[in-house]
Amino acid sequence: MRCFTVLGPSQTGKSTVVEKLGSLEGAARKSSSPYGLNLTEFTFGNESWCALDAPGPNEALAHAQHALLASDACILCVSSAPEEAVLAAPYLRVIEASETPCILFVNRMDEPRGRLRDVIAALQDYANHTLLLRQIPIREGDRIIGSCDLISERAWRYREGQTSALIAIPESAAEREHEARSELLEHLSEFDDWLLEELIEDREPPSDALYAISSRVLRENRIIPVLIGAASHGNGMMRLMKALRHEAPPVGVLRQRLARAGNVDENKLTAVSFHAYHRQNVGKTVLVRALGVGLRQGASLGGSSLGAVQHLANGRSNSAVVPASGDVFATVKSDHLPVPSLLTSDAVVAPPEWTEPPTPMLERILIPGSERDENKLSETLAKLSATDRGLTVLQEESTGAQLVCAQGPVHLRDLCRTLSDVFHIAVTDRTPSPIYRETIAKPSEVHYRHRKQTGGAGQFADVKLSIRPNERGRGFTFSETVKGGVVPRNYIPAVEAGAREAMEKGPLGFQVIDVGVTLYDGQHHAVDSSEHAFRTASKMGVRQALSEGSAVLMQPVFRSEIHIPSIYSGSLVQIVSALKGQVLGFDRDETAKGWDIFRALIPGGALDDLARALRSATQGIGYFSKTFDHFEELYGKEADAIVRAHEGPGVAH
Q1: pLDDT, the chain, mean
Q2: What is the 3-state secondary structure (H, E, C) of 222-249?
Q3: Measured CA distances, 587 to 51, 127, 593, 599 (Å)
Q4: Distance CA 175, CA 205 (A)
Q5: Where are the extended beta strands (E) located within 200-326?
Q6: Taking 60 as the threshold, does the pLDDT of residue 649 lie above it?
Q7: First to last CA, the chain
Q8: Which three-class secondary structure state does DSSP give residue 208?
């Protein structure tokens, strides 16, 4: 079986492309994953094929990346509008990082919204590989009625519901065809000395030799050929499928590529797991592509026995099924197989770094509808995060509630639907509050005496403490300068412990940071003093001193790296400024052509607004990662509102 992925932005007709390719020579068999990955099995040219139709939203990019892990080649569907080329930038980025041979297909050419050359030029801004036209459109007025193949120099007229008709190249297209063909041959000659010599000698190379060169450079991932068509009318589908059949590499090339990327012995690499999901009453289903022979139910894979092998289309298990090299199959009761991963018979190997999804930007607290679902929710989210690497599951620091980090609102909605439909857990969500702290603005001193008389021995401790602000980031410090044994040495650790305990909650209701405490005097009683008494005296004394130290609210500030196509960089300064952030600068992204990395300091309370503004400003393409940097003071009405909200019932911090 040969396998390819079809990917690209939403509304570019990917699913229609797969449907038309699958029906060129008979009926196809389709299966779907809850995560939006569709698999279509079909036959073409006496060969078995599997098309992986990756979900279009940018929030599902992780599933497209994992599909590439199992693909011999891919088709990138793009719009015929030049201004929409930027929407393909994330896909070009992952395709090039994965080193997957790619054919770019400009779809919906029956409704062109710009010149083809402008579309290619706009896309080239995001591709290190040369985008090389293999066809040009034939126009009749404002309509595109056919295409001309630049290698065979044959023209075809589209016919609705029928195969295209061979025609002579129209005079109106002859000059453009000659120009585009010359450009094609010039680029191909960069990878073939024989062709370069033919061109220098002004000899016309035969078509079969050019097809062979084109096939080789695609298999070697040297260029990205560009084909055109309109899948909804079936236009260009046969040519696209023939290009895949003759030019896409076999499964052995994928095996070599993965072994090299994963630093695995190629002879031991048996399979690759690339997708998984949970089904009601079935459990975890893992999609696997065989890269060698000998796999069957019960065989050793990934260090344990392979579970039941299922047909993709009908989900039926058959213990007699022996997947051949290249076959894609589903397996259940193989929970030991992580996704994605490279698999040998006795080991699981981590996938290449390029499969890492973008950092999740949307953080939400999930609240189960009933108490009995609380433990179940935690276990279920752990299962789901193991099958969806775009999802991160944490616990809110202050409450221990389930905190999920999703790629965006669509991703979050799909997660909640899966929890409800498959696991019968109804949840609501809320925005988590930033983790605020407080400190003091001025030093103070306190004299606190703890005295308590009970029926037996009493409690007595007397401490004199000075409290002062520390420099930012130093945290809590404790020192002592007592003399003459007024506070015995064995009680001083208890004084420090009491001071630390007082820092857990300050006058504003938050944890106190960056404060120094010094014990400089005190008294003790030979009978009634104890560690507990001095700990209590210290805690109460420090609390009193904090209330006199002009408490100041501290907000978290994060260092953010924002990844965006360069055309959007100009808008970020305004976005960051509006969020009261600080611009640190930006650089070209050396790993992705046409992208910038924009650095800024953003208040923690503005991160959710940053995610929304970034999605709006970049059409959902931009994303950011964050790391905690420091706490800084927050004053005025904003600080007062946060303190009042924190004092409200049931509000977490």
Answers
A1: 91
A2: CEEEEEECEHHHCECHHHHHHHHHHHCC
A3: 38, 18, 12, 9
A4: 19
A5: 223-228, 271-279, 283-290, 300-301, 304-305, 308-310
A6: no
A7: 54
A8: helix
Distance (Å, rounded) from C-alpha 193 to C-alpha 612?
Answer: 52
Residue 346 neighbours by CB distance under 10 Å: 12
Amino acid at 242: K
Whether omega before 340 lies within 30 degrees of 0, making that bond cis, reads yes
> Which residues have a Cβ under 8 Å from the Cβ of 451 and sit 6 or more positions away?
458, 459, 460
HSE-up of 121 (CA within 13 Å, CB side)?
A: 7
| Six token digits for residue 362 | 């949307």
The helix, strand and coil proportions of the chain, stated in percent and rounded to the nearest 5, come to 35, 30, 35
Query: What would the two tokens of residue 382 be?
Result: 């752990």
Phi-psi region of 281 (alpha: psi -120 to 50; beta: other; left: phi over 0): left
The tens digit of pLDDT for each residue in 578-598 reads 999 999 998 999 989 999 999
**Contact 143/112 with Cβ under 8 angstroms?**
no
Beta bridge partners of 553: 438, 634
What's the CA gap between 52 and 509, in Å, rounded? 53
Q: Specify the pairing of strand 47-53 against strand 2-7.
A: parallel
Supply φ then ψ for residue 445, to 5 degrees: -125, 155
Sheet holding 38-44, edge to edge: 29-32, 38-44, 47-53, 2-7, 73-78, 102-106, 223-228, 130-133
Half-sphere exposure of 290 (CA within 13 A, CB side): 22
Place of tokens 């016309």: 204
Residue 535 parent element (H or E): helix 531-547
217, two tokens? 């450079």
Structure confidence at residue 157 (pLDDT): 92
Q: What is the pLDDT of residue 651?
A: 41
Report which DSSP code applies to 369.
Answer: S
Of 84, 129, 126, give the one whose Cα is nearest residue 106. Answer: 84
Using CA atoms, how far apart are residues 426 and 305, in angstroms rounded to an integer?
35
Note if the pTM is more than 0.70.
yes
Alpha-carbon span 381 to 404, nearest angstrom: 8
| Residue appearing with tokens 């007709």 | 13
Give the pLDDT band of residue 323 (cuts 50, 70, 90).
Answer: confident
* Cα separation, 404 vs 419, whole angstroms: 13
Contacts 24+ apart (CB under 8 A), 389-396: 389/62, 389/66, 389/339, 389/340, 389/355, 389/356, 389/357, 390/59, 390/60, 390/61, 390/62, 390/63, 390/357, 390/358, 390/360, 391/360, 391/415, 392/360, 396/365, 396/432, 396/652
Contacts of 178 (CB under 8 A, 6+ apart): none
Sequence length of the chain is 653
Alpha-carbon gap, residue 520 to 293, rounded angstroms:
78
| Residue 426: Cβ within 10 Å count | 13
Gap between the Cα atoms of 456 and 447, Å rounded: 26
